[in-house]
Design a protein that fits this description.
Blueprint (H helix, E strand, L loop, with lengths): L12 H4 L4 E4 L3 H13 L5 E3 L2 H10 L4 E5 L7 H12 L5 E6 L6 H7 L4 E4 L4 H12 L3
Parallel strand pairs: 1-2, 1-3, 3-4, 4-5
Helix pairs in contact: 3-4
Bound molecules: manganese (II) ion.
Length: 139
Amino acid sequence: MKKASFKEETPKLSEELPLSILIAEDNVINQKLLLSILEMQGYQPEAVADGRDVISSLNEKMVDLVLMDIQMPEMGGEETTKLVREKFKSAAPKIIAVTAYAMAGDREKYLQAGMDGYISKPFKIDDLISEIRKVMISP
Ligand code: MN
């Protein structure tokens, strides 16, 4: 008898793009959601809840990609991105902004603020995957 194998039908993104990822998100539910999506894609992301912790985490261990919530209690995503760029320069990770509400012109605004990509909550898994792909495989 043949076993059904639904699991391996879609290759995991991590097989195409092996990455170290840091999640910066202060909302526990959103943080868990991002963690589980990325884990399902084969990643082992770490998560912090504030911009200050992004800096200390990157000091400890640099990553390839940061998913950066814009609104966080101590230091928000825009300020954190600016600091990351200043501090780590060419060694800085790629940064995808994750915003609570989509507003017209957001993408431009966050790209100007030094982010490499942008998604707005609530997002679909495919939106996240295609943005990661876009940012990490940019020409
Ligand atoms: Mn937030």
